Amino acid sequence: MSETKPFEKEDPKEDLKVYAIMTALIGLSALALWGLYYIFLYLIIPSAIISSTIGNILENTLGKVPMIVQFAIIFFIIAGVLGFGFLLENDDVRIYKALITTIWSIAAIVLFAILGASLSISIPLPGVIGLSFILFVSPPFVFGILKGLGFLLSKFSR
């Protein structure tokens, strides 16, 4: 009668199979990270230029008006972004509201993270203003892209 130990497997080839799969997945992950590095490298530079340009435009135009007018302009933009929800149906309004909450929360976190990082390193103000503004006004555009992708998915799934 042969007894097996409780933690020993019957077939040692199973262990080799698991190790082979794990190492292949680690190799694929390394290749994916290498590809993501180059994707982000080539996407960050144009997006930094765009956000700095938007920040410079906002700083040069809104920076020349009194603070109360800047405050009013910001609230008009908020009203416009929120008012887009009145054009939607009831189911879409809930999705849009969740999208606004999510994106504006991300915008606030990014803004405070960048401002916190600017205490230790020099970060240009137009880049911060531009990135915050892009995140601030993006919910209608993101919602439109999501609805368009949902429509295309429903057409192709038939």
Give a quick precis of the structure:
The protein is mainly α and about 160 residues long. It is about 80% helix and about 0% strand. α3 (about 90-115) runs antiparallel to α4 (about 125-135).
Total DSSP E strands: 0
- Strand composition percent: under 5%
Number of domains: 1
Give the helix proportion (percent range). over 70%
Taken in chain order, the helices and strands follow as HHHHH
Structural class: mainly alpha
Distance between the termini: 60 Å
Largest sheet: number of strands, sense, barrel closure: none
Average pLDDT metric:
84
Given the structure, what is the number of helices? 5
Instruction: Report low-confidence residues grouped into runs of 5 or more.
Output: none
Give the radius of gyration: 25 Å
Shape label: extended
Helices and strands in order:
Layout: H1 12-62, H2 67-83, H3 90-117, H4 125-137, H5 139-156
Task: Provide an overview of this structure.
With 158 residues, the protein is mostly helical. It has one domain. 80% of the residues lie in helices and 0% in strands. The protein is built from five helices and no strands. The longest helix is centred in the first third of the chain and has 51 residues, at 12-62. The chain is extended. The N and C termini lie far apart (60 Å). The mean pLDDT is 84.
Keywords:
158 residues, mainly alpha, 5 helices, 80% helix, 0% strand, extended
